[in-house]
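ARCHIVE RECORD
Type: protein–small molecule complex
Small molecule: FE2/S2 (inorganic) cluster
Source of inputs: curated submission
Record status: active
Notes field left blank by submitter.
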Amino acid sequence: MDRVHSVQVAGSDPRTVEVAGDQRLLDAFLRNGVYLPNSCNQGTCGTCKVKVLRGIVEQPTPSETVLSADEQTSGYVLACQSTPKSDVEIEVPLDAGCGPRHVLRDLTGKVHEIREVADDTVALTVRLDDPLEFSAGQYVEITVPGTGEVRQYSMANPPRSDDHLEFHVRRVGGGLATDGWIFDSLAEGHAVEMRGPWGDFVHDADADGPMILLAGGTGLAPLKSIALHALELDPEREIHLYHGVRYRSDLYDVEFWESLADRHPGVHYTPCLSREEGFGRHGYVGDVLVEDFDSLRGFSAYLCGPPAMVDAGVKACKRRRMPGRSIHREKYTPAP
Ligand code: FES
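STRUCTURE (tokenized, with ligand):
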């Protein structure tokens, strides 16, 4: 039988979680509804680093770009990659704050709809067997059948509609999950297995100022969830969405956003084409944002898309005086 080890978080509010067999620290904490900072769940972002104060923890050697040599020597590990081999005490960085406490679960459901929305892009809707609690902006991992591999997709629907999940999927040439499954054989009624929710990129429902949403490609999905959630809380909310793609044929959900803007006077929708003119604005979302605003003081921003787009968007927000604490970001690359 697999050994079960107990892992305690040090501090004034000590929390203890039981971790079984090969289970990873992060998985065990989130399944018990105990928050640990997390983002990629793949060992590539460093968000989940914790310090081991006592006990033995195993992890694959992390890249020094994620966990520096000094940090590794000082006992830091990545909770999403680490498995305890004894009872353990860990310390979570003080600035980790708190985040969504939805319980991580194994999920099952059936494909409700697969809708082609743009060139090589589909909106996939899965009806869940049991509703899922999540925060706007979070994602699930979908199991690619017969491979043991998972792919991460953000929910595009707001949390209220938690008996179905909408995902935006872009085809990646030769990709195991996209070319080999979703765009090849997946059909309505097929069973889907998932795990979630994951991630700290979530709508801050306590902030009530105007919002900037910068999306690149299918990075639009979590921003759609965030926008809809914000409008549920305040239908008058000022929201500026910039959706960047290369060509008009890559753009999707245009009618949805135009209709949302018609119904909510605070919503402003700006599609941006980087390689073509003739529809929306020409250029990258960050550049268009800088053209449109002299100051972004008092705004908050949510950015999701390819790393270069997110980095440029963050620079654009800061150039227009938005403080770093108001900028929420998720770097995202379509999974193969
Ligand atoms: Fe990204 Fe663990 S390294 S969540």
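CURATOR ANNOTATION: The CA atoms of residues 22 and 83 lie 6 Å apart.
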